[in-house]
Amino acid sequence: MTRTWVATALQRIEADARRSADTHLIPLPLPEYPGVDVYLKDESTHPSGSLKHRLARSLFLYGLCNGHIGPGTTIVESSSGSTAISEAYFARLLGLPFVAVVPRGTAAAKLAEIAFFGGRCVEVEPGEVYAEAERIARDCGGHYMDQFTYAERATDWRGNNNIAESIFSQLRHEPHLLPRWIVVGAGTGGTSATIGRYIRYRRDALATTQLVVVDPEHSVFFDAFAQGRGDLRSTQRGRIEGIGRPRVEPSFVPTVIDRMLRVPDARSFAAALALSARLGRRVGPSSGTNLAGVLQLAREMAERGERGSIVSLICDAGERYADTLFDPAWQRAQGLDAEAIDATWRAAPPLAGAARAGAAGVGQSRP
């Protein structure tokens, strides 16, 4: 009976994936930097609204095929919101109960989306999310998905239409077949691990394409990368939901990253607003963090007279941040005036960066 249920569950997830085309690769014209082609992969168009849809699907497949998920299994996750929304979507698809353990203060719109898909939210202090999720899963005999441990191993980084394979496939008909840079943030570290491994697996991309990870304030990933340490901790809570962490997560794989850039939160917010205005639609703050990194690299390429392409992500839509980023009162409180937003495209100062030892062809600066 259990094997039959698992087979049915796998079929439902596969059928769900087949119902929609891949996410769009949107060209972003940058007249400020001629010769540099920028593309944004729009992950907000997934059925659950964010990049985390891919991760949730992989985690469910991983749990099913490892025998951790069966009929009636309660699914539990620790999440700042987007992963929980996506996991709630798949839990409902399979008829399973879902509990999200989220940091207190998570955006109300995200909590509402988790509830919309049938999930229950438990709000705790940021430092308690891991232990509370483990406790709930243990007490109810459920399964703790633990995205921060399993993100890098649940995804098939060699292909299977993962995000890296999709990017390279979509670039086949563009002027530059291989990107010069791919820019992503790190929350679990799963996306950067998948893309970094795939670049190496492709071989033809090894000499051309490099991976840059952008990290917001109060996250320890940048310092862990720069110092070669895995034991760093922070007691400060980040404000860019979905990326940055107070500890070095098990799924963060620094050895496949070529360079990291530290992005001030104010720059992320301003960039998200600037990008929203240029696209004519709202994007979330982590997309602004990505854009800040893209523009730094575009400036460097233009200064060297280099032509090529940069690919990054729209992680989620801005509607989830109506009561923060897109609230005029909140913007004023953050000092986000029109001048600061307009400065995004040219006048922003260089970001602090660190390069992997032995990485060729990348600049390096220290904070």
Key terms:
alpha/beta, four-stranded parallel beta sheet, 367 residues, 40% helix, single chain, globular, Rossmann fold, 13 helices, seven-stranded mixed beta sheet, 11 strands
SSE blueprint:
Layout: H1 2-18, E1 25-28, E2 36-42, H2 52-65, E3 75-78, H3 82-94, E4 98-103, H4 108-116, E5 120-124, H5 129-140, E6 143-144, H6 147-154, H7 163-170, E7 181-185, H8 190-202, E8 210-216, H9 221-227, E9 259-263, H10 265-279, H11 285-303, E10 308-314, H12 328-333, H13 338-342, E11 352-355
Parallel strand pairs: 2-10, 3-4, 3-6, 4-5, 7-8, 7-10, 8-9
Antiparallel strand pairs: 1-2, 9-11
Tell me what you see in this structure.
The chain is of the alpha/beta class. The chain contains 13 helices and eleven strands. The protein folds into two domains: 17-46 and 157-355, Rossmann fold; 53-152, Rossmann fold (3-Layer(aba) Sandwich), CATH 3.40.50.1100. Helices cover 40% and strands 15% of the residues. The strands form two sheets. It has a seven-stranded mixed β-sheet with strand order 1-2-10-7-8-9-11, sandwiched between helices. It has a four-stranded parallel β-sheet with strand order 5-4-3-6, sandwiched between helices. β7, α8 (190-202) and β8 (210-216) form a beta-alpha-beta unit. α1 (2-18) runs antiparallel to α2. The chain is globular, with a radius of gyration of 20 Å.
